[in-house]
Amino acid sequence: TFKTKYLYFSLLLSLSVSLALSLSGLLCEEEEDVCSPGRNPCQQHSTCSSTTTGPRCVCAPGFVGDDCSVNYDECEDQDCQNGAVCVDQVDGYTCTCPQGYSGELCEVPPPPPSPCERARCQNSAPCVDRASTALCQCLPGFEGVRCEKLVSVNFVNRDSYLQLSDLKNWPQANITLQVSTAEDNGILL
Predict the structure, then answer these.
(1) What is the DSSP string of 38-106?
(2) Which of 15, 34, 155, 175 is the most buried (most CB within 10 A)?
(3) Domains of the chain
(4) What would the mean pLDDT of 4-28 be, rounded to a whole number?
């Protein structure tokens, strides 16, 4: 009969088409959307398109694979410089720079040290950079290129004192003391 032949033909048609499409309905006349919620195979907020061969995923930036489930490691093609460490992120990467380096790819080297950083002034002497030359400004009582020599001591208050440390490691030391009173008619004993 016609109805039986129609059902048989519809069944054959639905079997051949169902390889590519999902159909529903009593006579398989309704095409189901393979991208509908609950059936969408695409992951990571990618876009799903229904095609005659099945769903097709258009991946969001940073993801790859048939279903966009793989986070592409951008560090495989990174351009970090000067020994920087690449940190993979979604759709990109960042470079963690070694100390002193800067820039997006750590391409900016640290500035050269100033002459004062190399001068190593001693005894709390401040350093002044004059025409790219370091000059240690010695505090009162000190001399030398780095203010390393103690040349005089002033005892102004009763609580003043002179402390000489690590005398065992001094190869030679000459200490001369000149003493005077603060009073015009004072006597030292």
Answers:
(1) TT----TT-EEEEETTEEEEEPPTTEESTTS-EE--GGGG----TTPEEEEETTEEEEEPPTT-BSTTS
(2) 34
(3) 1-32 (no CATH), 35-72 (2.10.25.10), 78-111 (2.10.25.10), 115-155 (2.10.25.10)
(4) 47
